[in-house]
Amino acid sequence: METIKNIVKNIFASDPGPDFNYYLPLLVLAILLIIWGVVFSGIYDRKKKTDFAFKRCFKNLSKTMVLFGCLFLLLLAVRYEGIPYFSMRLWLYTSTLIFLYLVYHYVMVYIGKYTKEKTNSSVLQKDYLENKKISYSPSKKKKH
């Protein structure tokens, strides 16, 4: 029972102290998320014109990555400055769990939804192009 109390006290401590060995890895993660969000935005802009399934499935991914990068930078800065209640471990753990859930979600979207929609859209596009035939007739079109 005492260990559970210590764990809860550790998570909800308003000022966890200066001992935080993950400044550099968290900084690298935040910068990589921001850079990848900007790069993915360019990739998305190019691919959305040709790939409808990609456009539908990954519309908000670049914004989400940049926001999580900024959130981790903010949490890192607050933790470095030691601001009470904002530098709690709870915020870092919660943000990390939400980020891991979103990574899982987008991996599952890529594996499941994107592959299905890509095949469906290519089949529908092929059928559309086959059915769209230009017909020429010698008579003029009627005006309405």
Jot down its keywords.
5 helices, single chain, 73% helix, 144 residues, mainly alpha
Quick overview of this protein structure:
This protein is an all-alpha fold and about 140 residues long.
Task: Give an overview in words.
The protein is elongated and about 90 Å long. The mean pLDDT is about 85. The chain has about 140 residues and is mainly α. Helix 2 (about 25-45) packs antiparallel against helix 4 (about 60-80) and helix 4 packs antiparallel against helix 5 (about 90-130). The chain has 5 helices and no strands.
SSE diagram, text form:
Elements: H1 2-11, H2 23-47, H3 52-57, H4 61-81, H5 89-131
Helix pairs in contact: 2-4, 4-5
Q: Tell me the number of strands.
A: 0
* Average pLDDT: 85
Gyration radius (Cα, Å) is 25 Å
Straight-line distance between termini: 85 Å
